[in-house]
Amino acid sequence: MHSRRSSRVVNIGNVAIGGQNPIAIQSMCTTKTHNIKATVKQILALEKAGCEIVRVTVPFPKDAEALAAIKEQIHIPLVADIHFDYRMAIAAMKNGADKIRINPGNIGKKEWVVEVIEAAKQYKKAIRIGVNAGSLEKDLWAKYGRPSPEALVESAVRWTEFFEKEKFHNLVIALKSSNVPEMIESYERMATKCDYPLHLGVTEAGTFVTGSVKSAVGIGSLLVNGIGDTIRVSLSEDPLEELKVAKEILKSLHLYSKERTVIACPTCGRVEVNLIKLAHQVEEKTAYLKKPIKIAVMGCVVNGPGESREADYGIAAGRGCGILYKNGQVVKTVEEKYLLKELLAMIAVDHPDQKTL
Q1: Residues 159, 16, 58, 249: is their CA dihedral positive or negative?
Q2: Are 81 and 56 within 8 A, CB to CB?
């Protein structure tokens, strides 16, 4: 991996992003924000699953007014999503939003954007400038003919310079696209144009499989090159599914150390047990581990420990029996029906500080 891009630090509530701070995982509520009970319930579930920053939509005054009550009941930074009405941005900050996300090109008048900036200064809030096909200015459509990476970057640079002239630097930048190669190119170009933290995401990525693959390719390609400070996997699914994918992207690049990782062989004709079921059981039963522990589930006694030598713990299952191993060394042979139980017991002994489910 390349070294991390150098960027300034921006505080989103109690979470610092940019610099050498850990990559922060963000998601977004699917509830109506003015439904305080439902929104809080979803945010608390997202918190438990590992969400570190959460965004809610604020299209109407009743949504902005609800933020104060929501903020009192959650524990992670709250971001207000603003599309067209600058007054909602100001109201959101007044009611406790830690950051607002706006597409300045959609606000309508630059004087209104200035009013948002002044409110952010007053309330000491951060602003994420979002640029996408829907917010691209008419002159850039005329110049480029489409929302190309060049067009998106020119728009983003234009707006960062506008904010800087207003003496506001508490910024995060996003240039999202549903076209993965163009999304990657946009962020690569922008990374050379500013030192603001970059929020990564593939927009309109799709349902679970399609969206996960597109997000992993787009976000992962940038992270491996040191670009990106926060991420959001956008799926047409329950937001909890977004978090699972986001964490796996970060874990695959050794950028997330807050929970265990399970690796498993893809199965073949040598496998004598229901390895797929066993792998799912191990994932489910070890989800409580909030440490960077690697657990292997292998279907071949002969090759298991060798192929997964770097795992902290492992199972290599065979017909009727299997072996447990730790740090690449065989611990003991166990009957097949006790493999899972013995693995969990071995891990629990080594990590008594971790609360089991």
Answers
A1: positive
A2: yes
Same fold, 10-252 and 261-350: no
**CATH code assigned to 261-350:** 3.30.413.10
45 vs 326: CA distance, rounded Å: 33
- 291 vs 143: CA distance, rounded Å: 51
The answer to whether residue 161 scores a pLDDT higher than 90 is yes
pTM above 0.90, yes or no: yes
C-alpha span between 258 and 45 (Å, rounded): 17
| Helix, strand or coil, per DSSP, at residue 280 | helix
Strand partners, 11: 16
CATH number for the segment(s) 10-252: 3.20.20.20
Q: What is the DSSP letter of 302?
A: T
Q: Is 127 helix (H, G, I), strand (E, B) or coil?
A: strand
pLDDT value at 306 more than 80: no
List the domain boundaries for the chain: 10-252, 261-350
pLDDT recorded at residue 317: 84
